[in-house]
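The protein record quoted in full:

***
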Amino acid sequence: MITNFSFETSPLNEEEEKMATLMEEAFLSRPVGKKYAIKNADIAEALSTKGFKVPSEARVRKIINNLRINNRVPCLVANSNGYFVAEVPEESISFLKSLKERINAIDYVLQQMAKQHRAKFPKPSSGPTIKPLV
């Protein structure tokens, strides 16, 4: 889980595992390529029509992550139009490049926030010791 985002990043519950299986089957059976991208909100709506109570778009992203990291839907990528299975190498490469750019952007924010933290709180507090982030 991620600090301050415990609900959004908690492991999938039983109902979400069922949603994951349904989503896996759907992605593996639909046409591939970016022209078949499906938006998060549309996935949530489709799950709702199947009787699932989708708690948030963040949890749909968590389910997508589960499908990816467990290799349940190979090359399940995304762009601004939604999620889809890559049809050609360029679609996967474009997603990987975007992912790396987002990692770099988050790392830059981390570095700047750590710098601000050190400037604002130059001495350790008398409370519990916190391991430095960077």
Remarks:
- The beta strands are 76-79, 82-85.
- The first helix runs from residue 6 to 9.
